[in-house]
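Take our chain:
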Amino acid sequence: MSVNAPESYYIQLQKEKWETLKKWVEQRQEENLYLEFKQSDIEHFNSKGKPIKKDRELFCEQVSGFANSAGGVLVFGIATSEESQVDGASEIIPIPKVDSYISYFRENVYGWFAPSDLKLEFLSVKDPEDDTQGVMVVYVPEYDGDPVMNMQNDKVKGYYKRSGESTVKMEHYEIADRFGKRPHPQLEICAKIKRGSWTHGRSISVQVVLGIRNTGRGSARFPYISVTSKNQHFQSWKMPSGLDSMFTKYDGELYGKADISLAPGKCIWVTYSDISISWDEIKNDVRCPKGDILDVEVSLGAEDVPMRSQHLSCGDYPFAEFARHYLIRTNRETAELPEFSLEDFAQFRRGGGG
């Protein structure tokens, strides 16, 4: 798996911690598009070790800037000095009561930004000679959504971005452009038919599985669907076995994968209906539910994506004809059933079951 520049800095700090900070100071590591050093205003802490207004303002500016750019790592506790017109790390100035300091930011951060669902990661890098003090590291991933507004107070309120090694306020046209042109997800239902989980004699279970595919250019967070079936044999929709802890079900009918961002071009399978088909030796024919193989009304949506409905059907093609073809075509003794999509099924219908 490839690692981007901000992640690379953060992973290095997680592994080597204080040694990385010392190395950066010795080598005068320069600030850049993905890395920012700040010296905490330790002279103006309150009695509980909480930061003052200045630190909060700096924090919010940098987080907004990184989130609206390509992401980055913010390090509080390193002073910089300028050489050849470039800021570089010059000294580690540890933050006293660093754990309390980090807790304050972690507990309050989400009220300082809009949107508020930033996925920030905090790391405490302790001074090996005094573990009550240290440096705060914040990993800020690029935010895949509308631009992030710093709402900490009126003085610094606004949208920020990274420009080289600096953080600057976005211009009005840049904000309007980001709101209008940020890639957005486009959700569609995907479906497939597959062999079920059990076989008994000449009977097998068949699963009709429904999922969500993102055909847009932006990621979809917390995608979900609801299912209403017109066929009484497809009324019971379940979550995939073995993955229950990864799925959530709301009000008995909404299904969605928890804590996931569905990337463009990807599909997740979220629910299925399990039915049985068998071979009747006396009638020399299949025994299965009556009606269409699939006839459902599906509603789907995601966070900040309006819910919309989609009708999914295989027309008036009887389920018995499908079952008959596949049980005859494959070995009835082993009852093997190939997995195929509804697109494959439509092609099979057009080709007369070939």
